[in-house]
Amino acid sequence: MDRTPALRSLEFLPHLIHYSGPDPSALLGAPACDVALLDATGSLGLAPGMADRLDTVGLQVPLLIVLTEGGLAAANQNWRAADIILAQAGPAEVEARLRLASAPVPAVEDDPGLTVAGPLIIDESSYTASAAGRHIDLTYKEFELLKFLAQHPGRVFTRAQLLQDVWGYDYYGGTRTVDVHIRRLRAKLGAELDSMIHTVRNVGYRFSPHAIEEDSHDQD
After folding, report:
1. Across 175-193, average pLDDT
2. Which of the listed residues 107, 110, 143, 179 has the most CB atoms within 10 Å of its CB?
């Protein structure tokens, strides 16, 4: 396979490399890794959905996308890439970008009552939620539901599980109340944040703090 100079640079660096196709079935066989590189020089259309594919197969790693100079015009934050590498990059630049992308991100604040999920900040001590400085007015149960989902990112919960964990065993209403509260939460989060709460068809709901841009077909 004809690889770009940036990817050929990996051969000169002290890293263990695994090559995989971009489809989920191939990614499922990929070993644990620290960083994922996508060569989008030949197919720019792969770039927008690659982060979602990695999430789908459970590879929670920084994504670096290799682009031609012309491809830079299409690059945007919705790709959720940790960095962009030009196809002509040499070993020193590739190594630097790999090192920076894989460096651990320090915690925003060591506060057990504070949950930070993407742009969302949930403060249990004051029962408040905000995003980018905007206060989100929530009822007690809406706050508890949002906090619970945000504290378990990526995990799918059935409606029955949410009733048990958020409402408690003493609640005798039906699971439809979960759908009602999810709709209210999405409305209050606003169009820029509501896609963090995914509807998993025929199952329940999943919270993904980094999936700000998501297809609307995944929602009610």
Report:
1. 91
2. 143
